[in-house]
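# step 3/5: fold
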Amino acid sequence: MPPRTVVIGVDSSTQSTKAAVTDTETGELLAVGRAPHVVTGEGGARETDPEVWWLALCDAVAAGLKESGLSPSSVVGIAVAGQQHGLVTLDRAGRPLRPALLWNDTRSAPQAAALVAELGGPEAWTARTGTVPVASMTATKWRWLRENDPSNAEATASVRLPHDFLTERLAGVAATDPGDASGTCWYSTATGAYDPDLLERLGLSVSMLPEVAATGGTRIGSLTDSAAEALGLPAGIAVAAGTGDNMSAAVGLGLGGAGLLDHPVLSLGTSGTVFAASRTRPASTALSGFAGADGTYLPLACTLNCTLAVDKVASLLGLHRDDATPGGEAVLLPYLDGERTPDLPTSSGLLTGLRHDTTPQQLLGAAYEGAAFTVLRALDELLLACGLDPADPEVAGRPLRLIGGGAQGRTWVETVRRLSGRPLIVPGSGELVALGAAALAASAAGGGDPVAVAARWNEKSEDAELPASERDTETWERIGSVLDRASKPLLGG
């Protein structure tokens, strides 16, 4: 019997790094090492020193390998999936010049508005990049840096996304993939390459950026001697291009050209996202028209306020996160970090509909409802972007796959089920971002198409399937009415 081989899939998220030691043949998750990150900033600022990510990656890999009980010699590949959109600026020696601006840093909202106007409006951006700039996107952060920290912008020799930075540390090669590159707003999903006109407009050059590999599973190099020493892994193992966290989650679910297409997913994490893999290039100004990690597209809508916002409300009320009941007349829009969908980058939370008999449990339930509503409202637009009719009974009956930390919470699941009226599937495979990265690593190590790899691994997954319940249209319409009538001055947007 041949010796067991494993790959390591790394999920470098906003709050922490996870390293999943995964059996190359079966996809069995043998161990997960974890290490925390430090996020700093007040108001709209959210930053992390990129070196924190590298140290956390080293710690998480060491912890995962130790927990697995396997020899380092059994590892044949590694890939990183990282939080999207972050701006990492490097000097000529490849060292970070300053803390990275994270995806949820909203200070570049004015620069986003200016960029939209300069190109001729939202439709012009959608036609070129698939995505309209908002404060989350990397291009707006680079414009902000040039205007607010010109000395560091002038000293910048290279620009990277978070996962690019880590991949380059692993392989010594500057590489990215179409999926994560498509979240910059300087990569064109129409041409599949960096857009030279947009780069010139932003004051960037192709030489400052990583080369775009064909897919996230492309082998872009081998683990260097120095990285191998830091990680305790064999030098020379395969390093994949890697991708963004949402693209990796799609791979982990088996969504893509070699798997499921046009099936919606709702992710409940720090952010709330709804996305699907499709062969149809998205052309909606209401969505981010990303590329997938495997050559397909990944239309996506993202909200900034999801599980962390609801947990904050629970903390303020002194309640456990599951001590919630339906909100009744209360409506709470938990936009504690500004918002991206809808685009209200400087908004704050809004509470209305209080009565003498409103309970703390109802207020917490209203926070759940507000967060779930915000991301579910984008679902119809997502389906349209995939070329589907949301009113078609077959489309309306497609189950919604529920992933992320919130998918393990009873109240989250029931709130989404009640407000969506759809059947739900909660995948049995845990750590989907890390699992998708592991499939990319397996692909780079010679395993074939990463989506096909993940789909084969998932055949043994024990998914929880929940039938549709009657949709709570009364709550849905009440929240929608408040959001539609609230003016930007009222929301602070």
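# step 4/5: annotate
The longest strand covers residues 16-23.
# step 5/5: archive (pending)
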